[in-house]
């Protein structure tokens, strides 16, 4: 059975059921925003966007995703953007930048996480720390993807970042 983007969206919705982000919004809205930002890059990119946090934030495993019929290329991309124990954020970003589809997913995730309303309820020091972290990640990720692809993604999810291009 070949899963569709709609099937993967439903899987993501079940996986993130009941989860809220830092400002109390259902977490599925974040993964859907990331998936939507990747729609023009094909269904596998969009699926990876929808599932990008499922291994970190739910009980799902890579093996479980494969068993559920998620295409291997999608699972591999999700694994590539998932935090690994003992790997710093900076190391993870450099690794992601060597994988084209993972780079696109992380750019979309970064752009959505950089929306001011996503950090609105954080303390000023946390907001500043995260903003600096995301800017540093963009300096690595954006050149790896190229300005046209970055503009497509960022234009869909956080157009305010386009000035950085």
Distinct helical segment count: 10
Largest sheet, in brief, is: none
Strand runs, count: 0
Give the overall shape. Answer: globular
Radius of gyration: 15 Å
How does the helix and strand content classify structurally? mainly alpha
| Mean pLDDT across all amino acids | 95
Tell me the span between the first and last alpha carbons.
Answer: 41 Å
**Proportion of strand residues:** under 5%
- Helix fraction bin: 55-70%
Q: Could you explain the architecture of this structure?
A:
The protein is mostly helical and 165 residues long. It contains 10 helices and no strands. It has helices at 5-15, 28-37, 43-51, 54-57, 62-67, 72-80, 89-96, 100-113, 124-145, 147-157. The longest helix has 22 residues, at 124-145.
Name a few traits of the molecule:
165 residues, single chain, mainly alpha
List the topology elements.
Layout: H1 5-15, H2 28-37, H3 43-51, H4 54-57, H5 62-67, H6 72-80, H7 89-96, H8 100-113, H9 124-145, H10 147-157
Short description:
Helix 8 runs antiparallel to helix 9.
